[in-house]
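To assess whether ligand presence alters the predicted conformation, the chain was also submitted together with zinc ion. Input:
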Amino acid sequence: MDYESMFRKAFKPRSAFSLVVRVTILIQILFACLFFFSSPPHTTRYVILAFDDSGQDNQGDESARIMGEYGYKGVAFLVVEWADKSSPVWSSLVERGWELGSHTWSHKNVSHLSTEMLYHEILDSRNWIEQTFNVTVISFAYPYSKGSDNQTVIRVLAEAGYLYARESMRRIEWEGARSFQIGSCPIKHDDYETQIAKVIDDSRKKGIAVAMFHRVNSDLEGWGSLTPQEFRYCLEQIRRNNLEVITFKDLEKPD
Ligand SMILES: [Zn+2]
């Protein structure tokens, strides 16, 4: 091949067909870039914020107030015997979209109770909360994180009408289906940073996670308390990681 024909080949005007193919590919690349940068791949991740031992001395006040600043709602697990019957806190939580669950009648370890006592702790507490606050109770929290491996307890929970029951000691794989063995991360003053990191990690891996709190107060009174500052840190992490805060009841709603 001489130089002249090589030159001609190299500078041959492109055919209309080849031009169309090139332009189409270019447009496709542009759209791919646009899609990639405008909407990064994202799947909604959920978190449920549960508050145990609710009912004592209006303890829901401070946590609910701070949650309100973030527009979050939680699940308050009430112990009937400890509940201040005259307090407006619980009705106001319900008005704000919070869910009320049962944490038994008198905070007993349900794994060692007679069947009669089980019905009292599990069914009577549910009925009391439903009638007092005019709500439907579908969630239960095991006191001392005991009883989730006891078949009699699970049968009574099902008969009583619960759909979800949560413990806090084991980290159980849970992906949001109805279950009486839902694990959760207890968030306490001494290890709240690592525990909230676990919640976020679980939520990323399984799509949903449960964080378990107790009181929020500056004097750190009571088991598992957090200061308002520490509690805010946890909520900040949840917001920064774009987790959607829901309740067990939300899992029952169609999409
Ligand atoms: Zn408790």
